[in-house]
Amino acid sequence: MKSGIKNPQILAPVNALEEVVPLLEAGAHWLYGGVIPREWADRFPLTVPLNQRTFESAQFPSMSELEKAIKRTRTKGGAFALTLNAPYYMDEQMPLVVELGLWAAHTGAEALIVADPGLVVSLRNEGVEIPLHLSTMGIAANARSVNFYARQGITRVILPRFLSLAQIAALIEAMPSVEYEAFILVGKCPHIEGLCTFIHDSPDRRWPCEWPWDLADQAGGHPPVNVSRHLAGIRESDRRDGCGLCALPALKAAGVSIFKIVGRGAPLERKLRLVRRLSRVMEKMPDELDEAWLRMCRESYRELYGHPCSEHNCYYPEVGSGDRGRKD
Amino acid sequence: MPLKRSHYFHLQGSGPIPEGWDGIRVGSETCSRLLPTRQDIRRISEEKNAARLSLVTPVAGPDEVGDVLNVILTSAGLRWGEVVVNDWGILDAAGGLEGIQITAGRLLMRFRRGPGVFDPWDELDLFSRRYLAWGPLYDSPLLALLKRKGVSRIELDPPRHWLPLPVQEGFRYSLHGDTRLIAVSAACPWLYDAEKGSWNPMTTCGCLCAPQNDLRMTSSVFEGTLLLRDRAVIERIEVDINELDLPDTVDRIIGHRIS
């Protein structure tokens, strides 16, 4: 359904039981999180992931705590989505992943976040009755891809980060029969996540996409200035400070029904700050962009992250990009 | 006795084709701007007199998918061997078309190749090594889905540590012989307007993203050299095909470099 007629909901990351109630009370409706069951952890290293976060602090510490979190979310009126979004699973892994999906459905989770088309088929073949959300890892970037995934059982698409607002609007208009979720805060990856194989194994380290890469042409000479500046911009920006606040009205009008905050493994205080801010900004969201709105979004950005926004942190740089040079 | 393999040269831009290649690939895995027109394909087919011609297609945005499908459809009558697909929507649309052979590209398969992935290789058990080397080829439901879509060939991205290929009935393979694909940029670096601080989607880029224009990426925290080519970060590698224990099913080698 095209959901521009109703208010979008906030989806927030969670990785501990005690985070559930504060996040819901702060304004989140959906929570998403993952777990590494002991039988998986005993067998596979973190480079063989069950979900797209390859460091332990992003996961719930145990199945029992995750179960309580799912039930508490439901009791409090929220919805929980379990991440099973590795790009692929081998045959020996698939039964365990399907079993986890079945367990989540019985426990009260509202959805699974998946990326492997093989897993989608396996879940349906095994009769796992739970809505399936396509991770951005699945890369549904056009209506034909969405149509393909929808026929496999996908009910919501998490939009790839590289799509522009115009492309998102065109996609939803062409394929309005599923829900759409868009990234709004944190985690502005410089690469297409489903097509990136840099490993992110520690939240404490700078990740390879942010390393100080030196560029040179094949003769050792200077690269084109724009390409060089592009990479320098990525290095100098903190990808964790991603933001798409000023595009909210356009996303809502396009039919996006879920606004996503990235950051499994981040401290609760940071998660709460992000949810509260997004919730507050959404309350003031106009039907159309105007200067007052853009100014409020820029101020919100500065208060959230402690510095002015930049095109390298911006999810939708076509909105208000001409204002970034201002020193307001 | 060495096996007979076809060698496909990936023609990007209008560069020369080295001696010894008996097939040509046109298009791009990563950039829709490098998609040839039907006229381009006809011209290349005639000028180069290649024995075989492959059309390579990227992940397509909503406004690009029609162009990709049009080139596939209108070129179907021309002489070529395959359409390489890296987008599930393109696969879904083109998979059932008569007279077109579909190959699953390495981006569709999503092999994991980034720096760091293979670091603890010596500490990994065989299962984990298989996951990192050829994981998607052990995903039977995925392979069954590809078969249902008419895929009978898969492109292989070379792993950092070679392991024997799993035997999968009904598939043949093309191996990228001189590049490993690491990542694809969300915003094209070549379209960045440093003055305006924005990416201009309407800029005519001139499609200069041929191998001779690769930019070298080096870092003090990484021993190797990566290359930036159009929107892709790749790693140039040296593989002696004859040293690898390749099964008969790997019957095509893909090359990208000029020299």
Distance between the termini of chain A: 40 Å
Structural class of chain A: alpha/beta
Percent of residues in β-strands of chain A: 5-15%
Task: State the oligomer.
Answer: heterodimer
Radius of gyration of chain B: 18 Å
- The total count of helices of chain B amounts to 6
Which strand order spans the largest sheet of chain A, edge to edge or round the barrel?
1-2-3-4-5-6-7-10
Major interchain interface with per-chain residue totals: A-B, 78 and 74 residues
What do these coordinates show?
The complex is a heterodimer of chains A (328) and B (259). By secondary structure, chain A is of the alpha/beta class. Chain A contains 11 helices and 10 strands. The longest helix of chain A is centred in the last third of the chain and has 16 residues, at 268-283. Chain B has 259 residues and is an alpha/beta fold. Chain B has an 8-stranded parallel beta barrel. In chain B, strands 8-13-12-11 form a 4-stranded antiparallel beta sheet, with no helix packed on it. Chain B has a two-stranded antiparallel ribbon with strand order 9-10. In chain B, α2 (65-74) runs parallel beside α3. The longest helix of chain B has 11 residues, at 38-48. The mean pLDDT of chain B is 85. Chains A and B meet through α5, α6, α7, β8 and β9 of A and α3, α5, α6, β8 and β9 of B.
